[in-house]
Write a structure and sequence with these properties.
Layout: E1 4-15, E2 18-29, E3 33-37, H1 44-51, E4 62-65, E5 73-74, H2 80-86, E6 88-90, H3 103-108, H4 119-124, H5 127-146, H6 162-174, E7 180-184, H7 192-209, E8 212-216, H8 220-226, E9 229-234, E10 237-242, H9 244-249, H10 251-258, H11 260-265
Parallel strand pairs: 3-8, 3-9, 6-7, 7-8
Antiparallel strand pairs: 1-2, 1-4, 4-5, 9-10
Length: about 270
């Protein structure tokens, strides 16, 4: 278990009579890039929402986070902001940026999980408050350099291209300094060049910030080229998992993406 940073067992999420996730289990190895794939409506985001505290799974589900050097935490029962403070950060499919604010201000929003300065200390700008402010600024500048945002750091986010906005969204969660980073379609709507750049930034963040990445992504070319381990969902159930090469050859995975008839015809 020392090499596992996240484990989830029998995770079940139900909406009315529909089971969006049906007893899904798996493990994410520390330092890896774990990819969760499947057709639209397969239950990918629902699973991530259950892990990150947005949805409450049914009884019998379990989600354990194994932070480095600390006791295991059962994430069920925690609220999303509490899970963030434990070291699990995530992005959503839609941008969550403040478009009228500049890049630095948006990145600073990610530091809220580390903010413990009391109101009086902040108002008087005490020595302790100054130290925390300097530490936050230093962390932000590290993200700015890592993601090549220095030229636009003072620009309003709303004036920047979509691909850069997605990079800023990525930077905001990097500023939280998580051990486990969950990315929900971070390359959606990007051009080929923008996707290639984002792949480089994800690799750089993993290497320099010592993170594990849990990725949802529809671009199969991207997933198969960067993932260490792939889990495939379809209609709320896990149908396969393994290496990218094995998933490309798995008939159940091909059928889920192309349809049973096409898969049978070999087309």
């Amino acid at each position: 278990m020392s090499d596992v940073i996240l484990s989830f067992d029998e995770v079940t999420v139900q909406f009315g009579g529909v089971r969006a996730c049906d007893a899904i289990s798996g493990q994410v190895e520390r330092g890896s890039l774990f990819a969760l794939i499947g057709p639209n409506g397969a239950g990918k985001t629902t699973l991530v929402n259950a892990i990150s505290g947005v949805y409450k799974p049914l009884a019998g589900s379990r989600v354990d986070f194994h932070p480095d050097g600390k006791a295991t935490e059962n994430l069920l029962g925690y609220r999303p902001y509490q899970i963030s403070r434990l070291g699990v950060a995530r992005t959503f499919q839609n941008l969550g940026l403040f478009m009228g604010e500049n890049v630095l201000t948006n990145l600073l929003m990610g530091r809220y999980v580390h903010e413990h300065t009391r109101l009086m200390e902040g108002g008087l700008f005490t020595r302790r408050a100054v130290k925390r402010e300097l530490a936050a600024r230093a962390a932000i500048e590290r993200v700015v350099d890592l993601l090549d945002l220095r030229e636009v750091r003072r620009e309003p986010v709303g004036d920047l291209p979509y691909g850069v906005q997605k990079r800023i969204e990525f930077g905001r969660v990097l500023a939280m300094e998580p051990e486990l980073l969950m990315l929900d379609e971070p390359m959606a709507g990007m051009s080929v060049d923008e996707k290639q750049a984002m792949i480089r930034y994800i690799y750089a963040a993993q290497a320099e910030l010592d993170m594990t990445v849990f990725l949802i992504e529809h671009d199969m070319g991207v997933v198969m080229s960067i993932a260490d381990h792939v889990m495939v969902l379809d209609f709320g159930q896990k149908i396969a998992e393994g290496t990218p090469a094995a998933m490309q050859q798995d008939k159940r995975v091909v059928a889920a993406y192309l349809g049973t008839e096409l898969a049978a015809d070999g087309r």
